[in-house]
Specification:
The protein has four helices and no strands. It has helices spanning about 1-25, 30-55, 85-100, 105-120. The relative contact order is 0.10.
C-alpha cells in the first residue's frame, strides 16, 4: 500500500503543476477548475493510502523480494447469484434515459433503483443465504 500512496501523491503534485500551468496559459475557468478538482481527488486518495499503510502489515507489493505467489489466497467474498445489480443497472439506465427522453421516466426508474439497492444491502439477512 505504501507504493500506491506514493504514486498517488506524486500524481497529485503533477496534476497541481499542470493545473497552474493550464490556468495561467489558457485563462479558461472550466478546465482549470476540473484540474484543481482532480488534484484534490488524487491528494485525498494518496493521503488515505499512505495513512492506512502505516497502520496495516506490510503487503507483498511493499517487499522488493516478494514473489507473485506471496499474495495468493482468498481475496474476499463475492455473491455468486445476486440479481440486485441487474435491477440497479436497469433502474440507472432508465433514469439516465429519462434525462434524454423525459422526466416522467424517472417515476419508473426510482422504484427499480430503490428495490435493487434495498435488496442488495439486505440480501444476506433473509432467505436461503441468511446464514452466510
Amino acid at each position: 500500500m505504501k507504493i500506491q500512496g506514493t504514486l498517488f501523491l506524486w500524481l497529485s503534485v503533477f496534476i497541481l503543476g499542470i493545473a497552474v500551468l493550464y490556468g495561467v496559459w489558457s485563462k479558461e475557468a472550466a478546465g482549470t477548475t476540473a484540474l484543481f478538482l482532480a488534484f484534490g481527488l488524487t491528494i485525498m486518495i494518496g493521503f488515505y493510502l499512505s495513512f492506512t499503510a502505516r497502520r496495516v502489515d506490510a503487503m507483498a507489493q511493499d517487499n522488493k523480494d516478494a514473489d507473485v505467489a506471496d499474495e495468493a489466497g482468498e481475496v474476499g467474498f463475492f455473491s455468486p447469484y445476486s440479481w440486485q445489480p441487474f435491477s440497479l443497472a436497469l433502474g440507472g439506465a432508465l433514469g439516465f434515459l429519462g434525462i434524454a427522453i423525459g422526466w416522467w421516466l424517472l417515476y419508473f426508474s426510482a422504484p427499480l433503483i430503490l428495490v435493487g439497492l434495498w435488496g442488495w444491502v439486505f440480501e444476506y439477512y433473509r432467505g436461503e443465504s441468511r446464514t452466510q
